[in-house]
């Protein structure tokens, strides 16, 4: 098995080690392999291929964390054909919440979510995907 080197903050390494111990993993490498498989399988659902989908994407980030707010706006404009709505609000004293409503194919939605996830200093990205058709798969 190839060895891959990954840079991450010390606090994340500590959390990975603690998670591995608490959940019976052999070590952080097994946790990361498992998480990587889950991430790659996330949008690999054949039942959603070729269907019109609606997705909500919730993004949480620290208010003072770089230029995330402007990067979210850039994503909103870059994917204007998929982003139906975008909402920004402040949560607590230090956080911002960005909500995207997406309408499109599985590939289009996964591209937007991937762009959001690739933004540095984001705390959390969560989403849900709902089919918005009668269940019939149609060619794209």
What labels would you give this structure?
single chain, 140 residues, alpha+beta, Alpha-Beta Plaits, 2 domains, 4 helices, 36% helix
Question: How would you characterize this protein structure?
Answer:
The chain is an alpha+beta fold and 140 residues long. The chain folds into two domains: 32 residues; 85 residues, Alpha-Beta Plaits (2-Layer Sandwich), CATH 3.30.70. It is 36% helix and 28% strand. It contains four helices and four strands; from the N terminus they run ααβαββαβ. It has a four-stranded antiparallel beta sheet, with helices on one face. A hairpin with a 3-residue loop joins β2 and β3. It is globular and about 45 Å long. The mean pLDDT is 86.
Summarize the entry for a quick read.
The protein has 140 residues and is of the alpha+beta class. It contains 4 helices and 4 strands. It is globular.
SSE topology sketch:
Blueprint: H1 10-22, H2 28-41, E1 53-62, H3 68-78, E2 83-91, E3 95-104, H4 106-117, E4 122-131
Helix pairs in contact: 1-2
């Amino acid at each position: 098995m190839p060895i891959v080197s990954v840079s991450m903050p010390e606090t994340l390494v500590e959390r990975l080690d603690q998670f591995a111990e608490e959940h019976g993993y052999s070590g952080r490498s097994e946790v990361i392999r498992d998480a990587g498989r889950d991430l790659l399988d996330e949008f690999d659902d054949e039942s959603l291929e070729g269907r019109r989908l609606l997705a909500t994407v919730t993004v949480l980030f620290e208010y003072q964390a770089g230029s995330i707010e402007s990067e979210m706006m850039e994503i909103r404009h870059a994917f204007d054909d998929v982003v139906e709505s975008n909402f920004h609000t402040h949560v607590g004293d230090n956080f911002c919440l960005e909500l995207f409503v997406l309408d499109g194919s599985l590939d289009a939605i996964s591209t937007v979510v991937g762009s959001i996830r690739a933004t540095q200093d984001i705390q959390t990205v969560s989403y849900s995907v709902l089919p918005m058709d009668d269940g019939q798969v149609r060619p794209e």
